[in-house]
Amino acid sequence: MAQTRTLGKVYKLLGLGLIFGCAQLEVASSDGGSASDLQQGTPSYEWSEEQIRNAVNTARAGRSLQPSEWPNGAKVAVSLSFDVDNETIPLRNGSVSVSALSQGEYGARVALGRVLDVLAADNIPASFFIPSVSMMLNPSMVDAIKSHGIHEFGIHGWIHETNTQLPEDVERRLVVKAIDYMEEMTGSRPVGYRAPSWNFSQNTLKIIKDLGFLYDSSLMADDRPYELLAEGEPSGLVELPVEWILDDAPLLNPRGNSYSSPREVLQVYKDEFDVAYEEGTMFLLTMHPHVIGHRSRILILKGLIDHIKEKTEDVWFATHQEIAEYVIKMSE
Ligand SMILES: [Zn+2]
């Protein structure tokens, strides 16, 4: 971890702006808002039980929202999401590396269309979390996604900012700005939030609760939907959990420390789905067009959908919004 963080800082210093999707940058930028900040510099091994409980209580898993049954008797819910980061990965750090920006541009120019075609072949809905600046640079993406009529748009920051490095008022202002921009671009107000790099600050839950979001999809305390607790109290927000295992970026970075071949990654996703199916829960996968949409990688998405379709009678394909609305309704 320390080595990766150091490498991240070196890359930033060199201005290489390497595009890793979210994973490496998350590690490189996760220092802010730590528990030690909350305890005013006291080392954690000296904390009292109360201090320890305070440290973990910002956003914690509450009651499970796993429903007793999924719609139409389906055994498992499947929800695919795409974080359309594109050029915002270098831009969020102020990098204007032409090389890195071009790698992001591929996401809008080539990869998104390839992803949409694969989804359209089986009429599978998905959720697209898009930083505002991605939409600004490539506004045609919005119409391309909207034209299918089944996909959802969700918030993914203004410029893929790192929440834990921001004061609360700045973080809030950027979320509000992102909501307004998305509403103007797509014609509807988003109900879902995904923190850029899943980088959730001590203030994020308070902010998204105040702004009336239905759900978050940035945290990792379960395989099933659950209600988020804010300072120990039910927040009313649904969490649709994510995991680095279920993210294409870390394992598919050819310059990273943990590179896996596309077919190996496909096997991880199949194994995750198979257990979700056996347990009757939820399979939620995060991908990035600029990562998964390459010629040698789109086979992962196609292969996964073919694998899931073998159980087609028992599968509910849904957007994150549809799942959040359903589990709330079933829990009432
Ligand atoms: Zn992202």
Structural overview:
By secondary structure, this protein is an alpha/beta fold. The protein has a single domain (2-33, 67-331), classed as Glycoside hydrolase/deacetylase (TIM Barrel). It has helices spanning 2-14, 23-28, 35-38, 49-56, 88-91, 98-121, 132-137, 140-146, 168-186, 204-210, 248-251, 262-279, 289-292, 298-309, 320-331, and strands at residues 60-64, 76-83, 126-130, 152-155, 192-193, 215-216, 226-230, 233-239, 282-287, 315-317. The chain is globular. The chain binds zinc ion. Residues 22, 83, 85, 156, 160, 196-197 line the site of zinc ion.
How is the topology of this model organized?
Elements (H helix, E strand, L loop, with lengths): L1 H13 L8 H6 L6 H4 L10 H8 L3 E5 L11 E8 L4 H4 L6 H24 L4 E5 L1 H6 L2 H7 L5 E4 L12 H19 L5 E2 L10 H7 L4 E2 L9 E5 L2 E7 L8 H4 L10 H18 L2 E6 L1 H4 L5 H12 L5 E3 L2 H12 L1
Parallel strand pairs: 2-3, 2-9, 2-10, 3-4, 5-6, 6-8
Antiparallel strand pairs: 1-7, 7-8
Helix pairs in contact: 12-14
The structure holds zinc ion.
